[in-house]
Amino acid sequence: MPELPEVETVRQGLAHHLAGRTVVTASALHPRVARRHLLGGVDLCDRLTGRRCLSVERRGKYLWMPLESQDEPEALVAHLGMSGQFRVTDQPLRGHRHLRFDALLDDGRWLSFLDQRTFGGLSWDVLKPDLLELREVPVALRQIAPDPFERGFDMDTVAATIRRRRSEIKRVLLDQQVVSGIGNIYADEALWRARVHPERSAHRMPSKAVVATLDAAREVMAEALGQGGTSFDDLYVNVNGESGYFERSLAVYGRQDQACRRCGAPIRRLHFMNRSSFVCQRCQRPPRRTPSG
DNA sequence: ACGGAAACCTGCTGGC
DNA sequence: TGCCAGCAGGTTTCCG
Prior knowledge:
The chain is an alpha+beta fold. It is about 25% helix and about 25% strand. The protein has 2 domains: about 5-140, Alpha-Beta Barrel (N-terminal domain of MutM-like DNA repair proteins), CATH 3.20.190; about 155-280, Helicase, Ruva Protein, domain 3 (Orthogonal Bundle). α1 (about 5-20) packs across α6 (about 205-225), α3 (about 155-165) packs across α6 and α5 (about 185-195) crosses α6 (about 205-225). It binds a DNA duplex through α5.
């Protein structure tokens, strides 16, 4: 579900409620919530108890909360998966069907992690300096590329990396090791804005077209962030349980058979990696079928 | 290296 | 009403 604008909306909400707060108690309430933390949910909660949260950080679709530490800096790392959500409330959400983790904070409020499909999760990691970013990043996230809003995102470097790939451009845009934060919605929206067909070979795209696509991705994600993200249903809400409003601004995603907002031609749905791509057949010319070169 | 598919999950919708 | 197929914002892993 959540891509960069949704995760950033969550980050802002969490930062407001968590910065400076100390964890009084923490509970892992479902075996899958800490599956990426090899020592298990009990260990994760033990490490969290009594610790003070300094801030809430994000790279792409990942969040982390650096914790006050005497020696080695470390953080709670979170990924929302397809359906994860953080909530901050005055009362615990015990009894909620999808509650996977919660923590009592020193101001009496509760931090809860809800996740219908359990693809999201929490883990623990050590922080190391990131030279490009001038900040510390969890070790496990050093293989995740900077997102388009980070200091370390260099347009020319990323465009060159993309043009070295021989995959279809959409597949490359979704590769979090090339550029992070882009998911199925914003990839389709960016490609439509740049008039690029998702099946174009990245290798054969002019540098200018790749840069235009990345610019479009940054632009559409900035606009979506301004609307609080895209909510199709209550699987994506902010930390106060409120939906985002960008769905009404989507140009292609989910608009199969509807008219292109630019040229009026119908939006088509293509099958792609066990999911869907939405394109305007007229604005986004399909590539010629020739041997890749 | 690349493309395809399946796996990990729950839950909703639409067709019969 | 029930059942079943198909679908969903992500990531990982295997296979050819």
